[in-house]
Predict the structure.
Amino acid sequence: MALQTDAHGEHLDHAHASAGRYIQIAVILFALTALEVLLYEACFGSLRESSGALATSLGPWFVELLLALSALKFFLVAAFYMHLKFDLKALTWVFSFSLGLATTVILGLFLLFWYNRGLWWMDGPW
Amino acid sequence: MTSAVLDHDAHPAHEAHHTSLPIDNRKLAMWTFIGSECLFFATLITTFLIYRDSSVGGPGPKDMFEVPLVTFGTAILLFSSFFVVMALDGAKRGDRKKLILWLSLTVLCGIFFVAMQVYEFQHFYHKGLGYSTNLFSASFYTLTGFHGTHVAIGTLWLATLLKDAIKGRITPAKALNLELSALYWHFVDVVWIIIFPVVYLMSLGR
């Protein structure tokens, strides 16, 4: 594995992960996607009747669970397939900064519409 | 952007690609571009979530979405992300056969995904959901349409690299050309990782 040292003394592993690790990540990503679909089917879909108490207990947490599973998948792809885990830390900062800005935009838009609907559009079709 | 555009290092005049950071400036540019794309898709996803339930009439998400079809599309994109990372591994090792095999599979996955989305849009249209039917349809088609366009552009980009790989132009020294397109492709996959649960599953599970 060819290792290079950057200006800050960090080791940059240009060989990245092995093929075996890529396969492991792929299996985890598929399992998480299957879990998302299973969660939907158990809470609201065709498995709702048979899942009984499980649907009742997981139903209120459906959105939170889906967001958590998506975040985990997002992290795995960014860290391993996009090589952020092995690349220069500055790239992680560039991406994290963008994600921070994107989160601010999301929150800003939600607040803006929430405020406007409450103030002016109270009697609208929503 | 094609491989020809990225193929600067074939010319000695373009050798100085490194910034004060120990990475190629094209890679830094790609990450900056991906950062701007985060803002673009964040805005589109939020717009969809805000307008999803604001329609006065017409069909809504529960009348339209079909989980099996979209799950199939999601699996295709996840497969493609794995395939392109294996292709890159082949390129870096100078294994041309491996590179061509995995890159061909990635391009096929891209074509399948775009075809799936065209089928889905056509299906929705025939069920009465046009672009301007209601707020839900406009925000849904805009979001998924832009994502599909990104997939189509990525597929074309990877296809040009596949042509170069077949001609033996992607050597380990030129693997960065493929790495840049792979970064873009993974980002497109990451966006779908968010769209699939947030747009489809959450809209159905309410």
Observations:
- Chain B has a mean pLDDT of 90.
- The first helix of chain B runs from residue 3 to 6.
- The helical segments of chain B are 3-6, 25-51, 61-64, 67-93, 96-126, 135-166, 175-204.
